[in-house]
Amino acid sequence: MDMIAELSKEFRLNQQHVGNIITLIDDGNTIPFIARYRKEMTGSCDDQVLRELSDRLQYLRNLEKRKEEILESIAAQGKMTDALSLAVQSAKTLAEAEDLYRPYRPKRRTRATIAQEKGLRPLADLIMAQTQRGTTLEKLAAPYVNLEKGVESWEDAVQGAQDILVEEISDDAEMRKKLRQIIRRDGLVVSRAVQENPVYEMYAEYSEPVSKIPSHRILAIDRGEKEECLKVKLELNDAPALAALCDRFVKLGSVTSACVKGAAEDSWKRLILPSLEREIRNELTQRAAKQAISMFALNLKPLLLQPPVKDKVIMGFDPAYRTGCKIAVVDATGKVLDTTVVYPTPPHKKVEEAKRELKRLIVKHGVTIISIGNGTASKESEIFVAELLRELETPVSYMVVSEAGASVYSASKLAAAEFPEFDVSLRSAVSIARRLQDPLAELVKIDPKAIGIGQYQHDMPPAELDSALEGVVESCVNSVGVDLNTASVSLLTHISGLNETVAKNVVAYRDDNGPFQNRSQLKKVARLGPKAYEQCAGFLRIPRGKNILDNTSVHPESYDAVTKLLELLGRKPSDLTMQGVGTVSQQIEKIGWQKAAAACGVGIPTLTDIVAELQKPGRDIRDELPPPLLRTDIMSLSDLKAGMELTGTVRNVTDFGAFVDIGVHQDGLVHISQMSDHFIKHPSDLVKVGDVVQVTVLSVEEAKKRISLTMKRTEAQKAKA
């Protein structure tokens, strides 16, 4: 297989760029590095395309390896033909290759192999030929009766021969491919309840075409089956499949035709259908898992890239009942200033005492925002905080943040090393404060699966899920960049080219020698060699370093290009300031981008990136996103009425809609059908996690804690507009 040509066709990319990408990957370059600093070689492919291409490359290489193994195995059996060799080499998928190998794969003892041991292969071939006329099956089979071999009658001989044909028909690659297509086209996924469970109520008597069933329903049915609440199977009208089998294998007019037809029917019911049912079910599950992993990754990225709340003193509020609410105040850099425990919630209800303590901390440290975890006792805590804020003389707002994974982090070795003086619950309060302050820096400390934004993540193949989520985390951390002098080991571990050992060495060097003054000092860090330096340097920032370029995403390999650019524009190095160098783009326009790039010794994509950094050094891409929605008051579920217009924050996006926080402690669902007046293929086409949206309440079911919302404009809103 010409992999470059194949990948070029699949991804609609220039073959030279695909070849370059493969070389870069094989040379040990990371995806973030390739995406950011090798744009000329890749045609400016973004990291998502590069990851998909890398995954596809691995699949094709595995396919080629497997095809070689299959060809060697068949050749060793002495059964290789030119046609078979060409068919295997031309296979486009692992399934096609395995279908071709099926007749030659070593098998356990079956009815067919037993029949062959009894010498019935010639009779099977005679029956399959279907050329016999003017005779009977009895006469054809009689010579094969052999008491020593256990063939006691001509009927036994025919049955044994049929067993051989049944397996032969089942192993036919072309036929399996056709029957697989019939099941995909005409099959139904059917589920029936075997025990009552309200969670699977809609699947108690349910069926949906294989070709149309969406991923989230496949996963729900699979889980119901796993929990023994549902019985699931594929149902299919046998007629089209049997017609296809007879059309391929049965020749009319022979005394053996009925025997071949019987073998085809037996093969379908006993071997092919059960095998293909398992295969199609597995295929559906894999497709659903792939979609769910994709959705998880899609939700994770905007969650990690939520704008940080900068330069604010934040109070983390970890709600609880009996054990009290844990409080942690952190300064603008995330340093813990104070901690305490208050008891405003049941059973203690020491509301006034809690108010006095929190007012004292707010005044003492200049707190401007309270970050409340959304776990147990969150609603009561939010009501308490809203009442507290109304009594304050200075403006303070609050936000409810997801505390998913906070308990996992607070009990981890990492948290213990970071806050050895705090107990587990106080560490959670610190994490809740920092999640609002700098979501990316805090959330990278937690296993992405524990962040709580996916669907059926615990049912996903762990290796595939981990790989996809690690890719998202790596992409986010590197696209933002990190402060080399403040970044934790957790954050540094996700930087291109650094592993945990080297990240620890970076922090150790910083602790021993003081803050980094320039990127070149990285070369002195133990085990950080030239390749690692090349991969990581551009993503590490030094905000107060000697060289302003060290606080940008300009790679050290391009520093000479910056010098040449400044000379070309008649500028001096002293013109580089944190306020940026204005009018650079306009000056280059006059010279011409192609000419300027050639003079600097770089391509136009690299020059474009350099200019963007010179105009705004130290920029944080998250600053360009909408800020988080802060609140000062609260509503309860009972306050909601149909028709109410509210502002909310998207908390999760699924295949069937989006869940929106509207400030009542219970997220409302905007079903995909209620997201737009126009057709949208998927909710992610319209919204992402963290988006602030305008919604209208459709209905409220207090008993079930269900809120239905719409993003469509009502007639009144349209009239007003």
UniProtKB/TrEMBL annotation:
Transmembrane segments: none
UniProt GO BP: nucleobase-containing compound metabolic process; translation
An MF annotation (GO) of this entry: mRNA binding
Listed SMART domains: S1 (SM00316), YqgFc (SM00732)
Gene Ontology cellular-component terms listed: cytoplasm
Start and end residues of each S1 motif domain: 643-712
Domain of life: Bacteria
InterPro entries: HHH_9, NA-bd_OB-fold, Ribos_protein_bS1-like, RNaseH-like_sf, RuvA_2-like, S1_domain, S1_Tex, Tex-like_central_region
Protein's name in the database: RNA-binding transcriptional accessory protein
